[in-house]
Amino acid sequence: MASSLASLEEELKCVLCQNIYKTPLILLCTHSFCKTCLETTWAEHGAKECPVCKKRSSIENPPINRALKSACESFVQEKNRRVSDEAQGLVCPQHLLNMQLFCLHDEQLVCAECVTQQHNNHNFCSISKAASERRENLRGPLQELQGSHAAFSFEKLTCLSVSQEIQSQFLQTQTQIQKEFEKLHQFLHEEEKARVTALKKEMERKSQKIKEKIEEMDDALASLSKRIKLIEDYMNADDSLFLKNLKDAEESAECTLPDVELESGALLDVAKHVGNLRYRVWEKMKDICPYYPVILDPNTAQSSLHLSADLNKVLCRDMKQNLPNNPERFTIDPVIQGSEGFNSGTHSWVVDVGESDNWTIGVVKESVKRKDEISVSPQDGFWTVSRRDGQFTFNTGCYRAERVQRIRVQVNWDGGQVTFTNAETNTQLQTYSHTCEKMYPYFSTLSDLPLKIVPASILQSVNEKHSNHLLGYCKKGMCQH
């Protein structure tokens, strides 16, 4: 078949260009040539004759050989198809025949010649049947790949959302840092100005006082010089005159002199102004630098929760934010965690719930579900107190109708206890036992009135550390009392 195709190609070649005819023209002698080839040859020879038989043509514009043109076009299409089939492996490379069957033994396409030669005694089926069965076998893997593609597409959207949120967080956090440092700079500038003013006032006051002391001494010195001169004049007179004026001389020698010694504290109290200056300024900064034992983590907040810029207040609004679905985020219930967890020690913080209703606070284990609806119970890793319909609700099911403005949450992790206390009266509300993994502060609210973390005393913490430090020295026998 390949040889017949090759011989046909020879029949369809122009004798002038040795290529398949392109727009073949037929002469009266029945010879055909490509239009371009014939026109070029006639132009070169200056005579319109057949390039093969040399018979002159009486026709000015020879007609197109339409049958030959159609045959050439069909041949070219078939040849291109065969080339494509060969490139795709649909033509047997050995026998140059179309693949007609599928060998079940070797799992490959074969031609009629292959069946009787290389694949003798093998089982065969039609190409359509083999393709149908194997298409069906690929449907499962294809669906898995499509599912993976959808999952990756969804995760890519999440990553894009996270990327946008990172940029937004950067700008917001940068602005917040700048604002906080502006407050610190303003405080330090005002504190510096106040302390320099106090130093200047002390300098002026003590300078005026020492100036008055110098003026008083100048007056005393002038008076003494005058008395000395007078007495010297009396003493230098002759004896009779001296004795005559002796009483005046003795009176001149008697005078009450002012106190010439400086009082203590005449110099500036430098120690008062610069001693422990940075510590005392830092000590005053507690009023503008509150310490919050719990900081809310915005990366865990469900989209309806809105936080204050300093991350210590949270409230709920109907308007949801466009936040990325990162792994840490709660997506169903209006929940947020504290930014730091703990798996040892004792931890305590106070939450100002104010007049807010429909809230839950406490602690939660690290591995709690974040993308599903939450069942708030110790069995699921929640140790909480809630406010619903004017009553307190605990995981144990007991209720209290009293209104509490501030609630202390205390976790004795090593002792396995979580305790809730009325921070204003120090009355215990509820105590749970726990054996748990790492735990985090937990907050949930449906109210537009904020839950607030109450700042702790910085100086108290510092004094406690200082006392413990001294106690350690005393235990080592290094403290002398």
Describe, in plain words, how this protein is organized in 3D.
- The protein is of the alpha+beta class.
- It has helices spanning 2-11, 35-45, 66-87, 112-116, 127-236, 239-244, 246-253, 270-274, 277-284, 458-475; strands spanning 24-26, 32-34, 101-103, 108-110, 124-126, 305-307, 313-316, 335-337, 346-352, 359-365, 382-388, 391-394, 399-400, 406-412, 417-422, 427-433, 439-445, 451-453.
- The strands form four sheets. A seven-stranded antiparallel beta sheet has the order 6-7-18-9-14-15-16, with no helix packed on it. It has a six-stranded antiparallel beta sheet with strand order 8-17-10-11-12-13, with no helix packed on it.
- α5 (127-236) packs antiparallel against α7 (246-253).
- The protein starts with a helix and ends in a 6-residue tail after the last helix.
Order of helices and strands: HEEHHEEHEHHHHHEEEEEEEEEEEEEH
| Share of residues in helices | 40-55%
**Major pleated sheet:** 7 strands, antiparallel
Number of helices: 10
Rg over C-alpha atoms, rounded to the nearest angstrom: 53 Å
Query: Strand arrangement, largest sheet?
Result: 6-7-18-9-14-15-16
Helix vs. strand class: alpha+beta
Q: What is the end-to-end distance?
A: 118 Å
Which descriptor suits the 3D outline? elongated
- Mean of residue pLDDT values: 85
The stretches of 5 or more residues where confidence is low (pLDDT under 50) are 459-481
Beta-strand proportion = 15-25%
* Overall number of strands: 18
